[in-house]
Write a structure and sequence with these properties.
Rossmann fold; alpha/beta; single chain; seven-stranded mixed beta sheet; 13 helices; three-stranded antiparallel beta sheet
Length: about 325
């Protein structure tokens, strides 16, 4: 009799413990990796108190196990150690959460976190190398690598910065190329850009819509849209225009937000949609007449609070 009563009680507790988005994300993470609270806080972008509370509940219900390493508790789900009915319930939950945008974001963040996490048996020289990297950034700033990469661009190129905003990227580009054409449709943004660039003479700021660019056919060797596409009601039209202003063989580069499910973030940032899948952007570029499209996720910076981003590069056929 007691066993019969306990079975539905356990079932209801297991169901209740899975009826929370944060706990589902935690379990998907610790099913694949052994992670500490600080790891999980960084990946989920949640405070320690919230993560610890959910981990305690999951541990109490038998979903996770933990072990001590130094001053840190590491958490893991061991599928084979779950109760048979509990295991079946988890397999169903895992199947039903496939394709969830939040999990795609979590996978990128945990991969970056694991890449940066120092192993226990780090040698002296590994430690010295890590300190050198930190020291180098303190002494020279974080962007010296970016300058080196920009210097690889041909110095005679004309590059369009589409959706240039306050001109920060245009300024970076102007040091390495012949001319930068910055386009934005917001007068206040262009005023801020003019103030920023001052007397720099190879930046041409133009007001206009990205769906109808104030640039001649084939005027540019390269064109960039950086964190712009999610603000556009007609992204396909803007990419057709992007292709139009490129010369044959010209390069198109897009950086934007990967698809996510953070509606509050979308509203706060005033964006039109919840980001893009890499394949979706490649499809839009190809529809615009651009080829050789390559689109990859960008590993998120540990301190970044927004969703992960993607980088897409394409070419206009010769």
């Amino acid at each position: 009799m007691d066993t019969q009563i306990a079975q539905p009680d356990s079932l209801l507790r297991w169901m209740a413990s899975l009826a929370d988005a944060t706990r589902l994300r935690l379990l998907r993470l610790v099913e694949r990796h052994e992670l500490g609270v600080s790891d999980l806080c960084d990946v989920l972008q949640l405070p320690q108190s919230t993560v610890s509370r959910h981990l305690k509940l999951l541990g109490d219900e038998g979903w996770t196990v933990s072990r001590r390493r130094g001053t840190t508790n590491l958490y893991r789900m061991v599928l084979d150690e779950l109760e048979p009915a509990q295991r079946q319930m988890w397999l169903l939950a895992r199947e039903q959460t496939e394709g969830w945008a939040a999990l795609d974001q979590d996978k990128l963040r945990v991969a970056e976190r694991l890449r940066q996490r120092s192993p226990e048996a780090k040698s002296f020289f590994d430690g010295a190398a890590e300190q050198w990297g930190q020291l180098r950034e303190q002494m020279y700033g974080p962007s010296f690598g970016t300058h080196a990469l920009l210097a690889l661009m041909p110095s005679n190129w004309t590059v369009a910065d589409l959706g240039c905003g306050t001109g920060a990227l245009a300024m970076e580009l102007s040091r390495h190329v012949g001319q930068v054409i910055g386009v934005d449709n917001t007068p206040a943004m262009l005023d801020a850009a003019r103030e920023r660039i001052g007397a720099v003479d190879n930046i041409d700021l133009r007001q206009g819509d990205l769906e109808s660019l104030p640039i001649e056919d084939g005027e540019c060797d390269a064109a960039m849209m950086v964190l712009v596409l999610t603000y556009l009601a007609e992204p396909a039209s803007a990419l057709v225009e992007m292709a139009r202003v490129l010369r044959p063989g010209g390069k198109a580069v897009i950086v934007d937000v990967m698809r996510h499910d953070r509606e509050a973030f979308r509203r706060e940032m005033g964006q039109q949609n919840m980001g893009y899948d890499p394949a979706e952007v490649c499809g839009l570029l190809e529809q615009a007449g651009l080829t050789e499209s390559v689109c990859t996720p960008i590993p998120p910076h540990p301190d970044a609070k927004g969703p992960a981003r993607l980088l897409c590069a394409s070419s206009k056929p010769d």
